[in-house]
Amino acid sequence: MALRHYTLDFSLSTAVDSTSTVAGLLSIFHEQELTETVHDTNGHGYLATFVGKHGRLVILRVHSRGLVTIDLQCYEEDNIAQLDNLLNALEKKLKVLLNGNITRIKKLPALVRGAKVDRYWPTADGRIVEYDIDQVVYDEDSDYQNIKILHSRQYGNILVLDGDVNLAESDFAYTQAITGNGRESYAGKEVLILGGGDGGILAELVKKKPKMITMVEIDQKVIDGCKRHMRKTCGDILDNLKGDCYQILIEDCVPLLKKYVREGRMFDYVINDLTAIPISTAPEEDSMWEFLRLILDLSIQVLHPRGKYFTQGNSATLTEALSLYEEQLGKLSCPVDFRKEVVCVPSYLEQWVFYTAWKK
């Protein structure tokens, strides 16, 4: 079962008398066999609900501060043409009743709630985005997270981890950015990838003829889903855990990094594809910041003196969180310099920041 939720808003230059406005609309509601119930707003304008056949519900509110709002809810199988006619009739009548007082009219496409395929996902900076998702192709719970792969007509298949859009098949810009945007030479180099279970980074770097790539991914189910449903991103690289110039280790990267530090193991490139910078601006209290600092410190310790560390940041609009991350870069046991780059990742629908760091 899914519910369609329509909205129609009239912004006004001055408040209006609710009595005359509502009286002019009642005939439309009655024609649709909608029964009115008026609610007490304690002096804050007029509020009524209208309930009709097939579970239809209309909420009419004439606010005391220059706004008239109409919300229409109905089940997805309801007659859409009839509902469009109702909204159009209400809009037409209100234009007459509020003539000369209207500053803006806003009617949005229906919000579909409770649908089998969820099309709504938040951006990092808290906006709601509706994707053209038409199918869930993979949905599994692992010991670590919920893993979904959703099909979008525009972006191809999209990997979503715990409700966070990670990567779509359209997002080669992400892979380019987190590997240096074509400025690096990986030939004959030792590379460490932290995370990267979608296989995009690994598939791209193998083409650069490195000496060896070690990819450390904790979640086998991410790899299982991506090697079946993200082939445009990973190709066939995830079909085997070992190749001529790469190995995929299914384990927690933290103990492995600590082991590499003890052994004095060094890499020319470390690419951290584990998680975005936390949105929280309380780094001393947020466990994600603690994890991020640990990964940062261990990664720099296993980095060759002339090597480079690549990672994603977060949305370019989250300036406070990004500044806090840059502060963490200044507190590592080994001093580093860094630069950042802003990149448009298609499926994110927001500008995304990437960082490059190296030892001083």
Strand order of the largest sheet: 15-16-14-13-17-18-20-19
Shape: elongated
CATH superfamily of the largest domain: Vaccinia Virus protein VP39
Number of strands: 20
The number of helical segments is 9
Strand content: 35-45%
The total number of structural domains is 3
Uncertain runs are none
Q: What is CATH's topology name of the largest domain?
A: Rossmann fold
Largest sheet: 8 strands, mixed
Task: Summarize this structure briefly.
This protein is α+β, with helices and mostly antiparallel strands and 360 residues long.
Features of the shown structure:
single chain, 360 residues, alpha+beta, Double Stranded RNA Binding Domain, Spermidine Synthase, Chain: A, domain 2, 3 domains, eight-stranded mixed β-sheet, six-stranded antiparallel β-sheet, 9 helices, 27% helix, elongated, acetylation, polyamine biosynthesis, phosphoprotein, Spermine synthase
Task: Walk me through what this model shows.
The chain folds into three domains: 3-112, Sirohaem synthase, central domain (Double Stranded RNA Binding Domain, 2-Layer Sandwich); 118-165, Roll (Spermidine Synthase, Chain: A, domain 2), CATH 2.30.140.10; 169-359, 3-Layer(aba) Sandwich (Rossmann fold), CATH 3.40.50. The protein has helices at residues 18-31, 80-97, 172-178, 200-206, 220-229, 231-234, 253-263, 287-301, 319-329; strands spanning 3-12, 35-39, 46-51, 57-62, 67-75, 102-113, 120-122, 128-130, 133-141, 146-152, 156-161, 164-168, 190-195, 212-216, 242-243, 246-249, 267-273, 303-315, 336-345, 350-359. Helix 1 (18-31) runs antiparallel to helix 2 and helix 7 (253-263) packs parallel to helix 8 (287-301). The chain is built from nine helices and 20 strands. By secondary structure, it is of the alpha+beta class. The protein is 27% helix and 38% strand. GO terms for molecular function: spermine synthase activity. It is an enzyme of class 2 (transferase).
